[in-house]
Design goal:
The protein is α+β, with helices and mostly antiparallel strands. It folds into 2 domains: 53 residues; 66 residues, no CATH class. The chain is built from 5 helices and 4 strands, in the order H-H-H-E-H-E-E-E-H. It has a 4-stranded mixed beta sheet with strand order 2-1-3-4. Helix 1 packs across helix 3. It is elongated, with a radius of gyration of 20 Å. The N and C termini lie far apart (46 Å).
């Protein structure tokens, strides 16, 4: 793991559960330390690593239509049990999935859509 990856992960760990003001203070302290150590040149790399880490911690929930809040919260809680509490869940609407939902992150996909179920039912392996 590179120095910038370590710094980015440390910054994320330290900022979890903090207010925006506290996060800003942490960032200012990091920049102050980098300046003291004459390593301000790492700032761009650290920001890139922060973006990568943010994407790893992101989960996209794609709904066929807008569900009621209670249903969405139940789905979110279950997804957090599966993928981890630290996941940030973004919601998108895609009517093409007909019904149900898709949940995906960088590595996994949960297809609980009607379109996905129909695709699985209709799929036939080709014979060689």
């Amino acid at each position: 793991m590179s120095e910038t990856q370590k710094l980015a992960r440390t910054l994320i760990s330290l900022s979890q559960g903090k207010s925006d003001e506290e996060k800003e203070k942490l960032l200012k302290e990091l920049l102050s330390i980098l300046k003291q150590k004459e390593k301000l040149r790492l700032t761009k790399e650290i920001l890139n690593e922060l973006k990568k880490e943010g994407k790893k911690r992101e989960l996209i929930l794609i709904l066929a239509r807008q569900f009621d809040k209670e249903t969405v919260e139940k789905i979110k809680e279950r997804l957090k049990e599966i993928f981890g509490k630290e996941k940030k869940i973004k919601i998108k609407i895609d009517e093409d999935i007909i019904g149900g939902f898709l949940a995906k992150n960088q590595n996994y996909l949960i297809d609980a859509s009607l379109k996905g179920i129909l695709r699985k039912l209709l799929w036939r392996p080709t014979k060689f």
